[in-house]
Amino acid sequence: MALMGFYSADRRPADASRTDLDRLHNLTTSSHLWTASPHRLRRGVAGTSACEALAVVPDSPYRQDGQTALAYSPGPATDRAGRGLCLVGILFEPDRIADACGLPPGTPDPVLAAAWLDRHAGASPETALNRLPGDYALARWDPQEKTLLLAVAPMATHTLYHHQGPDGLWFASTLALLFRFPGVPRHPSMTGLAGYVSALVLDPAQTIFEDVGLLPPGTLLVSGPRGTRKSVLWQPDPGHRIRMKRDSDYVEAARELLDTAVRVRLRQPRPPAVQLSGGLDSPAIAATMARVRPGVPIDCYTSVPAPSAEWAVPARHMPEERPAVEAIAALHPTLRVQFHASTGPAPFEWDPRPLFLKTGRASILAPHMGWFEPINQAMIADGHTHVMVGNSGNFTLSYDGLPSLPDLIRRGRIDLLARHLPPAARFLRRPLWPLIWGATGASLPTLRALWRRWRGRTPSLAGHSPLRPEAIATLALPEEMARWGQPARLTDISDSRVLRAYMLSAGHARNVEGYAAFRATYGLDVLDPLGDRALVEFCLAIPVEQYLIGGRPRSLARRVLADRLPEQVTAERRIGRQNPEWFQRLTAQREAFAADLETLQRVPLAAELLDLPRLKKLVEDWPADAAAAEKQRLDYETLLARGVNLGRFLHWLDGNNR
């Protein structure tokens, strides 16, 4: 489900507020719409009027069972002071929250959240919400104070977009829903678009549109007569430390946190679907679900290459994950696994306009999305509304530890470096000296920068982005990156804890935009136990060598999961490779890419932003086969595909904004 609403000032024309209210009525039911002053907007009444409205609406109005799902979703709640509150997502351990508020078990989540905030009215909203655990976004209107409160829980998979003008504030869970309000402008942000297509975070609250902001997880917005303020509820703290006596203590603590993170997200009578791979992250979730819900069938969906697929991936990658998934399913018989393959580009890879309509944003990863399209459609066909993913695992439980080697050098722990690095090199079957050189250089960033400059290898954004060099200079992107603390390469953040905290805060803010688009496209709600706040805090705080015990990268996850995954999985040296047949998929679209690039020359914003001659040259100099393409994977799978798909969005936007 999604949130949507607005408040308008007394001076705003009544017919404009009435139009906004009608938009909400058209998207939801009366039981899911809350307004404090509907009588002020009677039809035929002229003049100006204030209006406040909050609503819960389907994530995807295009999904046929959206209204059915709405019927089973809790509507707004009103507290003792007449404040209205809407919530999407879930609260964790709701019966404990109900008991603290003097309410019976089974009380709906919006009622619990309203009661919790009312109970803690003497404290600041930041304090009250920081203690309200869950994966949610909420909106509350206070008719006495005439104040709107918007909040997104720490490490949530939800977000809220908002626009504030002189006559009020409008908000929604997706850009497409926000633009349902006629008064919300749709002016592209050059800096936002440039950052998006270049995989830069920059300002986490910035979007690809001017005058449209993002409320990232762990933040709060309060708007009313005294103005608007934003504040932070919680962010990952790279300075916190946890020490335990034995290595086994860390393992037991992590297992308990993992079990809890999965359990509190199993709120539905039917377990969520699991997007299952052969790695460590999603298998950790699926196996834990099987232990937490013994005897209950759990539907798992795995993407595999098509039988006719051609690929050429490095030996350290694992393109076919079926054997590992089958071994996991054999250990846990309640896991019902389906394997699905994409035999060609999905319809939206040819024509992404349906995605633009559903999400309101560019779909630069359309080829990657297309590879997963069969399992997403299978989940919908099987009636699922929620899906478990393990996207945060690389920076929490299954962090591999190698970026932490420079930390050991800076701490003067050469003994630990000597203990863990040689066996890690043997385990990965990689030469030792490049690892030593990389760790030494990362521990001395100034020296490494001078070395790169002397060798002529200074990282350049132009080499990793489909943008015109002139656009990079005009938008001052290097300066923007420095302003927001983003280096040209993430590995240039020499403190591994700071790097991981950055990815779990600023990086996570960009990930939740993807989750919002995913919900709008498929009507599937995303749950990520490996991004659980308590697990994040623990994994950031423990000694970094815990991830390299025994000379095995990802050592913590391998040891934690030894009690629930087969050794075939926990001992795997290779890493998974999604969409290994990417070149075959792009080759099918080569002519379409060429035609689109010709068209984009006549789209002013695309021609100003994108390096179209470079992209055209890539299409002309097409690799002979998958092996040749793999050597240019960055150019084709990333730069070309992202550039063309952003251009398609700009073309669509140009036509809609005329």
Automatic annotation (TrEMBL):
Catalytic activities: L-aspartate + L-glutamine + ATP + H2O = L-asparagine + L-glutamate + AMP + diphosphate + H(+)
Keyword Calcium: no
TM helices/strands, residue ranges: none
Molecular function GO terms recorded: asparagine synthase (glutamine-hydrolyzing) activity
BP-aspect Gene Ontology terms: asparagine biosynthetic process
SUPFAM superfamilies assigned: Adenine nucleotide alpha hydrolases-like, N-terminal nucleophile aminohydrolases (Ntn hydrolases)
Annotated InterPro entries: Asn_synthase, ASN_synthetase/amidase, GATase_2_dom, Ntn_hydrolases_N, Rossmann-like_a/b/a_fold
KW Chloroplast (keyword) present: no
Domain Glutamine amidotransferase type-2 per the UniProt entry, residue ranges: 125-178
Every Asparagine synthetase domain range: 254-334, 520-636
One Pfam family matching this protein: Asn_synthase
Listed pathway(s): Amino-acid biosynthesis; L-asparagine biosynthesis; L-asparagine from L-aspartate (L-Gln route): step 1/1
Keywords tagged on the record: Ligase
EC number: 6.3.5.4
Full protein name: asparagine synthase (glutamine-hydrolyzing)
